[in-house]
Design a protein that fits this description.
Blueprint lengths: L2 E5 L5 H10 L11 H9 L3 E7 L2 E10 L4 E9 L8 H11 L6 E3 L7 H6 L21
Helix pairs in contact: 1-2
GO molecular function: acyltransferase activity, transferring groups other than amino-acyl groups
Organism: Microbulbifer thermotolerans
Protein name: GCN5 family acetyltransferase
């Protein structure tokens, strides 16, 4: 298998949605909202993709300042290509694009916690999420 990795490659919403469906992320991403998916792609400023014979098989999609913080929004690898080091390579290439003090930060799906710990991420109990449906100060 010859995997080609690309940085900030053009990617259609359809290709991204297809990958999300072939990975485990489609359950937690708005795959039925094309406008939202388009915004996710358009407003990411760092993406690393993995391709096999012209087919998207993996992505690490981030928002970053390249100096201090890189928020990894998605790490997806198609199920049939998992456990082959593709996710690690996507993260490694992402990390190489960042400055020497820049941290990779993410919110993991519960099933992925062991994976991230295994590859060297440290658990942090200080993550907070405010859903759009909630207003600041309201419970």
């Amino acid at each position: 298998m010859n995997i080609e990795y690309k940085i900030n490659a053009d990617l259609s919403p359809e290709q991204f949605i297809d990958l999300l469906k072939r990975s485990t992320l489609s359950e937690r991403r708005p795959i039925d909202d094309k406008n939202c998916i388009e915004g996710m792609l358009k407003n990411s400023n760092l993406s690393v993709t993995a391709w096999n014979s012209g087919t998207l098989i993996g992505i690490a999609r981030s928002v970053t300042d390249f100096s201090y913080a890189c928020y990894l929004s998605d790490l997806a690898v198609s199920k049939c290509h998992q456990k082959k080091g593709i996710g690690k390579q996507l993260l490694s290439i992402t990390q190489k694009q960042l400055g020497p003090k820049c941290k990779l930060i993410l919110v993991a799906a519960p099933a992925a916690n062991a994976y991230y710990e295994k590859i060297g991420f440290q658990r942090n109990e200080r993550c907070w999420i405010l859903e759009r449906s909630h207003r600041i100060g309201q419970r």
